[in-house]
Design a protein that fits this description.
Elements (H helix, E strand, L loop, with lengths): L4 H4 L12 E5 L3 H7 L4 H22 L3 E8 L7 H24 L2 E6 L7 H14 L5 E9 L1 H17 L10 H6 L11 E4 L18 E4 L9 H12 L15
Parallel strand pairs: 1-2, 1-5, 2-4, 3-4, 5-6
Bound molecules: 3-methylbut-3-enyl trihydrogen diphosphate (2 copies) and magnesium ion.
């Protein structure tokens, strides 16, 4: 897909009201394949093309942070063949996208239990993260073997250790201190959380960080999700009033 934004962008977005961070639960690859009597793996392959299109679109319109939920801590319980296929797809995606990330000044980061991933995936991640570490136009964050509860447990363990060492007074534990011990340490909280495939649930994604995210659930299956639909969702986001617990006359943005 090589469409120029001016031609294929019928949605007028307000450049001053773009979300700084969009997070996406990419769901529905299996159902997309099933509908076509294909293997679930074919759905994941098709889904990786959507990833490409969505990364490009976010980069073009100037979204600073994009987080994609690609594999959860619970997804390890899927059949071994599916997990292996997903890992191979991920490794190939990282290798094939490196050039595009470099050309577009996109930095890659990962959140999750990286140490549980196969060595080849870890290596591809390290290579791509190192190659792109000085890029500044956008940060693409892949959530891999990611679980919100596991992230919170890890944070509590780190903070408890600091308390035990008497580096931190329990009274000095603030929201800021907690945030510093999460994988997302220097990343702003998502302004917009999108889930494809219609399920009205969070599935253990960014539990702490989505406290005030605007949520958008679309019935579209991830492989069918498009640039056009993303632009429509961003338009909808711009029409919302974010109150953060205050009353409307005080609302932020
Ligand atoms: C999302 O699609 C991809 C991953 C969770 C890895 P699914 O594989 O969950 O697809 P459905 O939900 O079964 O349709
Ligand atoms: C959420 O999708 C995880 C990812 C998109 C990586 P799932 O398909 O695993 O979630 P559930 O099982 O429907 O909650
Ligand atoms: Mg699913």
């Amino acid at each position: 897909m090589n469409s120029s934004p001016s031609v294929s962008n019928p949605v007028e977005l307000d450049p001053t009201k773009l979300p700084a961070h969009v997070a996406i639960i990419m769901d529905g690859n299996g159902r997309w394949a099933k509908k076509r009597l294909l293997n679930r793996i074919n759905g994941h392959e098709k889904g990786s093309e959507t990833v490409r299109a969505v990364v490009r679109t976010c980069r073009e319109i100037g979204i600073p942070y994009l987080t994609l939920y690609a594999f959860s801590t619970e997804n390890w319980q899927r059949p071994k063949t599916e997990v292996e296929a997903l890992m191979t797809l991920l490794k190939n995606f990282l290798l094939s996208e490196q050039k595009e990330l470099l050309e577009n000044n996109i930095r890659l980061r990962v959140i999750g239990q990286v140490e549980r991933l196969p060595a080849k995936v870890q290596q591809a991640l390290r290579e791509t993260m190192t190659a792109t570490e000085n890029n500044t136009a956008m940060t693409l964050i892949l959530a891999l073997s990611y679980g919100g509860r596991a992230e919170i447990i890890r944070m509590v363990q780190e903070v408890a250790l600091r308390v035990k060492r008497e580096e931190v007074d329990p009274q000095a534990i603030t929201a800021e201190l907690i945030a510093e011990h999460l994988y997302t340490r220097d990343i702003p909280d998502p302004d917009l959380l999108i889930r494809t495939s219609g399920e009205m649930r969070i599935s253990n994604f960014l539990l702490w960080q989505i406290a005030y995210s605007e949520i958008f659930v679309t019935p579209t299956l991830w492989p069918d999700f498009s640039r056009e639909e993303l632009l429509e969702i961003l338009k909808d986001y711009q029409s919302r009033e974010r109150r953060f617990g205050r009353v409307d006359s005080q609302s932020v943005k």
